[in-house]
Amino acid sequence: MEQKDRRRNVLIVIWCAVLVLSCCAQMQAKTKAWQGAITIPTYGWSEDVNPKFWALEDRIRLSTTVKGAIVYPYSMQDHLYREKEDRTYKALFLENEYLKVTCLPELGGRLHSVLDKTTGEETFHLNNVIKPGMIAMRGAFISGGVEWNAGPQVHTVTILSPVDALVGTNKDGSAYLEVSNLEKTLRTRWTVRVTLHPGRAYLDEQIRIFNPVDAVNPYYFWNCTAFPAKSGTRFIYPMTLGTDHHGREFFNWPIHEGKDLSWLKNYETWASIFSVDCAFDFFGAYDVDDDRGIVQVADHYELSGKKAWTWGTWDFGLVSQKNLTDDDGPYIEVQSGPLPTQSDYGMLLPRQEVAWREWWYPVHGLGDGFEFATKDIAVQTSRRDGQLELHMLATGRFARATCTVSQDGTELLTERLDLSPEKVRLIAVSPAPQGPAEVTVKTRQGDTLAHFTTPLPIPEVTPPPRSKVLDKPDAELTLEERLLRGRKYDLATDRKKAREYYEKALAQDSGYAPALVGLAVLDVEAGLYAEAVSRLERALERDPDDGTAWYFLGIAHLKRHDASAALRCARQAARYAVSASLAFDLAGRAHAALGQKRMALDAFEKAVSLNPNDGKARDHWLLALYAAGETGAAFNEARQVSAAFPTDLVPRAIRALQGDKDMDRFVKEARAFVGEHDFQMIETSLLFADVGLVREAERVLSAVCIEAVPESQRSPLPLYYLAYYASLAGDSAAAREHLNQASRIVRDYVFPSRPEAVEVLRYAIRENPSDACAHLHLGSLYAHLGRVEEAAPQWQRAVDLDPSLSVAHRNLGLYARAEEDDLPKAERAYRRAIAARPKDQTLYRDLAEILLEQDRRPEAIALLESTPADKLRRAEIIILLAQLYCDERQYDEAIDLLESTPYFVNWEGQTITWDLFHKAHMARGRIRFDDGDFTGALRHFEAALTYPDNIGVGRSNKPQEATAQYWRGRALQALGRLEQARSAWKLGAAGPAGSSEQDASRELCHAALKETE
C-alpha cells in the first residue's frame, strides 16, 4: 500500500507539472510557433584544435587574456576573420498579434530579433550582421538581441555554439520556444522557456538552472539584453545605490557627484552598474528621442540582480562597438540575474535548482520613460501645468479598466479607460495633488494591474560592510577564514586555489571536517574516488551527522563499484533533510547495481516524492519502471514527462524502445533539436547505465551517434562508450568491434571531459593498448580533471604509437614547459608538433614564447615570420612579432607589419596594437630627428597621434599624447615653423595627467613654451 501511495504521489507531481505548462482553456490559438531558416551576413572565425587546460596554462605566460579560464572541452574561438559572407542559420519563430521572435539555436539560442508589431520597431538592439569580437570566454562574442549568459563565467562558452532548442504550443493557445543546454565543462543544465501568450505583448520567460551531477557546481546566469545607445537613452533603475562589477565601489543613484548617471550621455568611459538592494520588481531603459524603451519585471526576491552596461561615449568604446557591427550603431546592455554582481557565483548542491520567471516587453509613447511597471502595465507620471498626468501602456487589452488616484484615503479621480499595447492612454488629475498620491489600476473584473505611490518612494540604501577575508594575509587568517577563502575560489572555478586553502585549513586542524569535505568533493569531481573515501571517512569521524558527507561517501563507493557500501551510506544520508532525496536516488542506483530492480524503483519513487524538481531522479524513476518490467507504465509516463519537459532526452529515449518506428522518430527528433549530439546522447546513455540498462544505453547511443552519422563524420567517443557498455553486458565480440572502429578514427576536437570517461578509456586501452588516440584522449581527460601527472605518460604513449598526433606532441610540450620547467624539452615537443601539423599557427606562437624564455629573440622572430597564414596570421602572432621588432629596434619593420595588417580584433579593453603602433612611430621619429631628418621625424610624430581603422583601437578620453606633441613641436621648430610648434606644445601641456612619461612631457611642453615666448 505504501508503494502504491508513493507511486500515486509521483504521478501527481508529474501531472501537475504538465498542467502548469499546458493548462486547458476554451479559446482559439492566436500564437504561432515554427521552425525555418534565416540568412545573415556573417564574419567567420576558426577554432583552435589544441585543447585548453586550466591546470597547466595558469603556470605560464600566455598570449591570450583567458589565462586559467575553464574552457575545456570547448575549443577556443579566437581567430576572427573580417571577410563577410551570407550564412544561413536554423531559426525558431514565435509570433502573436504584438510580437514576432526569432531565435538562433546555432548561436547559443540567442533571441536575434523581437519585433514589436505595434510600432514596427525592434524591442531590443538588432544587429544585422554576425560580427564576432574578442570578449567571451572562448574569444568570439556577438552583440545584439538577448544572450543567455549562463557561465560558467562571463561571457558564456556557447555564444557561437549550438544548443538544444525547439518550439511547441500549449492548450491555452500560447506557444513557446525552449532553449536548453547541458554545459559541457561542469555539466550544469540551464533551460529557458520563452512563451508568447495570445493577446499579450510580453515575453514570458521561465528560467531554470539545475545541477544533475554528483558534484557541487557553481552557477552563474545573466539574461543579457541589448538596447540601442543614443544621446536620449537612459537607464531606469528604481534604486538609490549602485556598485561596480566586483561589488567593491559604491555610488549614489541616479545623482552621483553632481552627475546624473541614469543618462547614457553622461558616461565618458565604459561602466558596469549593479543595483544594490533594489526594492522593486521592475527596471529597464528608455530612449526619450525615439520615445520607446524596454521593461523587465520579476520578483526582486527571486531575481535580485539588475545590471546596466555602457561602452561610454569615448572613441575607444565607439570603436570597440564598431568591431561588433557594420551599420547598427552603439548599444547598451540591460541585464537581469539571480546574483548581485558578475563577480558573484552561486552554489548548487547535487540535484539542486535555481528557477525564476521574468517578463520583458517593449514600451513606447510614454515620453521620457516609466515610473512604475508590472507585467501588465507601464506608467509614467508627470506634473505640468498644474496637473498630474499619467501615461499608461498595457501589455494586453483591458477594456473598461479603472484608474483611481487618491491621497490620504481621499479619492481624487476615478476614470474608466480602455488599455492596450498599441496606444498610450492619458489621464490627468487637476489640480495636481501636493505630495505623494496613490495610483491604482484595475481590470473590469477587479484584478489589480498596478498599485503604487507617485513619486515612487525609493528606499535609501547604504553600502554593506565589506568582507575583508580575501584581503587579509594568509598568516592572519583564522581556520574558518581559510575555509571561506577556499570556498570562494571553489565557486570561481579556481580549483587549484580552492585546494590550496582547504589544505591550509587542514594544516591548522587536520580533522577539520568542512575542509576535508571540500577536498573530497573536488576529488569526486576529478574521479579520485579512493582519495575521496579516505577524506570523507575522516570528516565523518569528526561530524557523523553530515548528511552531505554521507552522500558523497556513498557516491565514491558506488563509483568504485562497491554498491553495498554505497547503500549503507545512502541509509545514513537519508536520515537528514538536506540529503534525504539524494540518498534515495543513490540507494536506487545502488540497488540497481545489485540487481534489485524493485527496490531500486521504490527508492527512486521516494527520491522524486521528496524533491519533485529533481529531473535526474525523475528520469531514473522512469528507467527503473522500464527495468522492472512495467514497460507500459514507463512508456505512458515518459509521454507525460516529455510533454512537460520537451528537451529532456531520457523520456524520449524510453519511448523509442517501443519499436523500430519509434526509434526512427527519436533519432530524427534528436538530430533536429539537440545542439551537441554526441555529448548529450552519451549523457543520456549514462542514465540508462545507472539503472543497469546497458543494452538499452548501447541501443539509443548507437542509433543517434553512429547509425545516423556518415562513417567519415563519426566521433570515436560514442564508440568507446558503446564498447564499454557491451563489455558490461558480456558481449565481448561487440565490444571488440566497437573498439576497432574507434581506433581507426583520428579526428580533431575530441575532448572527453566526464570523470566517467576515465573508466571507459582505461577499458579501451586495456583491451587495445595500441590505440594511440585512446591514450591521447585519456591524457587530455586527466589534464582537464587536474591530474596532470597522469596525463603526460598517456600523451607520451600516444606519440610513441603515432608520431603524427600533433595535439599529443603539443600537450607534452605544454607539460614540459609548465610542470617540468624544461624549456629545451618543451621546444623539442613543439617542433615535433609543427612537423606533424605545419599549418597550426598556435604552435608557432607557443614555440616563439618558449624561445623567448630562453633569450633567443632572433630565432623567435624568424619563427614568427615563417608562420603560415590561414587567410591572415593570428592577431597575437602579429602583435608578438611587432613587439619583438620594437625590442630589436627594427621600427620600420614593426610599422610596416602593423600598417599592412588589414584589421585587428583586440581582446576587450586591450590597446596593445595602438601602443605598439605609437611606440614604433615615436622611436623611429626620434632616430630620424637625431639624424637631422626633421621632415621624416615629423611624419612619424604626427602618425603616432593617429588611430588608424585597422588598428581597432579608439582614442582614450584621457589620451597620453604629451610626449608625441612635445617631439612634434621640436620637429616643427627645427623646420622653422615656430607657431605650429607652439600649438603642439600647448596641446601637450594641456593634456591630462597620467603616466610618469606623460607628466614629464607636459612639463617639457610648458618649458618649451616659456623658452619661445
From TrEMBL:
Positions annotated as TPR repeat:
513-546, 581-614, 772-805
Q: InterPro entries per the record? A: DUF5107, TPR-like_helical_dom_sf, TPR_rpt
Q: Which UniProt keywords apply?
A: TPR repeat
Does the keyword Transferase belong to this entry? Answer: no
The UniProt entry, under PROSITE patterns, shows: PROKAR_LIPOPROTEIN, TPR, TPR_REGION
Question: What region holds the DUF5107 domain?
Answer: 69-344
Identify the PANTHER family for this entry. Answer: CELL DIVISION CYCLE 16,23,27, CELL DIVISION CYCLE PROTEIN 27 HOMOLOG
| Protein name (Swiss-Prot/TrEMBL) | DUF5107 domain-containing protein
